[in-house]
Design brief:
about 475 residues, alpha/beta, TIM Barrel, eight-stranded parallel barrel, two-stranded parallel ribbon, 15 helices, globular, 6-phospho-beta-glucosidase, hydrolase, GH_1_N_CS, GH
Length: about 475
């Protein structure tokens, strides 16, 4: 059997994509609440369009999402029915510190997550908690400029100290920042960055990156001090870039764009800024805002494991001007002519998961955790809300099969696998409900209409069978 007996099978969600309840029980406003559905979604996510209040011209899917805030017991019961060993969820920072700079946390927010964790344990499910899944309190953006400001370290430290203390014994597995490299590609979404006119974008982004990396190391330090059983991980939006062909300049380009994303994990896992990044910043005349003691904190507080999302591989070409493009998770790439694509243009490459796993394990020699993987598709339910999603089953079976090979044939140390959007939720990339990933259909459309009724899909029973067999039975019966 390739997987350990205690392999952590489960599913993953993010607070801003499923909870709703944006104004419930003292919760404050976050950047992720303000990213609307429609044409302005990307200008706002990129930090190019300042948008720090709700208005009547946009629809904000995160406001209510699938209302897990009021349905979480029902949803956890469905996860338990599937046999989940773990459930990855994130905390909404503004439920715990509504503005981000309060001296005392919001008890209602702390109690909400405590109740969820206790119910998870009652159901035999191990919580896997993302501390920051793109959340940044709007108050901190307005008053401090988001993660460009070093003062964010104090606010983040207060958050992590609060949750590590409150949830000691309830949560063992933690992720400091979701897809930390998204900061490079969507600065407002990744770090609450809104650019001022004439600002050096790269300088702002890399300053914010240093602060987030430092915050991650501080969280790791505090997490280990409060509970030596805590396992703290980092999280990458992964998927290797392949060279378009064996032309040396394309191979070099693929190496370069891979490094652009991997440098975050180099710091979090190895404890040092890599030389290739320092040289690039030198060429760009960018000085990292490193203060006394920073490098020691990074060096002494590396993560226990490396987690990542994988949806597709990517392809790199030195000269992209006339190349076909493919969509992808937050950032696109040159299209790979050997791969098919999903309805949203994301190329499908199960072997790429094995390749990516080997890249990360060879590079870091730390346990891996696949915390996002899945197929976004348009599901058509019957009159009872049931979806026969054989396409999703095929996608996941092929990816799990390659994951097994990475463990069994290549020797990769893998802690677990949590499929993305185990229950239908709002898509982070498009803001749509119609881009569905779940094993459970939620009756809600792209504009907030629907009963919110939950109905298991065909893939629900299939994943139940996968977990029960510890990944041995991938048949679609």
């Amino acid at each position: 059997m390739p997987f350990k007996k205690d392999f952590l099978w489960g599913g993953a969600t993010a607070a801003n994509q499923c909870e709703g309840g944006f104004d419930q029980d003292g919760r404050g406003l976050a950047n992720v609440d303000l990213v609307p559905h429609g044409k302005d979604r990307w200008p706002i996510s990129l930090g190019e369009m300042k948008h720090l209040e709700f208005d009547d011209e946009h629809f904000y899917p995160a406001k209510n999402a699938i209302d897990m805030y009021h349905h979480w017991r029902e949803d956890l019961a469905l996860f338990a029915e599937m046999g989940f060993k773990t459930y990855r969820l994130s905390l909404a920072w503004t439920r715990i510190f509504p503005n981000g700079d309060e001296t005392k946390p919001n008890e209602a927010g702390l109690k909400f997550y405590e109740d969820i964790f206790k119910e998870c344990h009652r159901l035999g499910i191990e919580p896997l908690v993302t501390i920051t899944h793109f959340d940044c309190p709007v108050y901190l953006i307005k008053n401090y400029g988001g993660w460009r400001n070093r003062k964010m370290l104090d606010f983040y430290e207060k958050l992590v100290r609060t949750i590590f203390t409150r949830y000691k014994g309830l949560v063992k597995y933690w992720l400091t920042f979701n897809e930390i490299n998204v900061l490079l590609h969507a600065p407002f979404m990744g770090a609450g960055i809104v650019f001022d006119e004439g600002e050096n974008h790269d300088e702002v982004i890399y300053h914010a990156a240093h602060h987030e990396l430092l915050a991650s190391a501080i969280a790791t330090k505090i997490g280990h001090e409060i509970d030596e059983n805590n396992m703290i991980g980092c999280m990458l939006a992964a998927g290797d870039f392949y060279p378009y062909d064996c032309k040396p300049e394309n191979v070099l380009k693929a190496q370069k764009v891979n490094r652009d994303n991997l440098f975050f994990i180099d710091v979090q896992s190895r404890g040092k800024y890599p030389n290739y990044l320092l040289k690039e910043l030198e060429r760009k005349d960018i000085q990292l805002p490193i203060e006394e003691g920073d490098l020691e904190i990074l060096d002494e507080n590396t993560v226990d494991f490396v987690s990542f999302s994988y949806y597709s591989s990517r392809t790199a070409k030195a000269h992209e001007e006339n190349a076909d493009k493919s969509a992808g998770n937050i950032f696109d790439s040159v299209a790979n002519p050997y791969l098919s694509a999903s309805e949203w243009g994301w190329q499908i490459d199960p072997v790429g998961l094995r390749i990516t796993m080997n890249t990360l394990y060879d590079r870091y020699q730390k346990p891996l955790f696949i915390v996002e993987n899945g197929l976004g598709a348009k599901d058509v339910p019957d009159e009872n809300g049931y979806v026969e999603d054989d396409y999703r089953i095929a996608y996941m079976a092929e990816h799990i099969s390659e994951m097994k090979k990475a463990v069994e044939l290549d020797g990769v140390d893998l802690l677990g696998y949590t499929s993305w959007g185990c229950i239908d939720l709002v898509s982070a990339s498009s803001g749509e409900m119609s881009k569905r990933y779940g094993f459970i259909y939620v009756d809600r459309d792209d504009f907030g209409n629907g009963s919110l009724k939950r109905t298991p899909k065909k893939s629900f029973k299939w994943y139940q069978q996968v977990i029960a067999s510890n990944g041995e039975n991938l048949e679609n019966k």
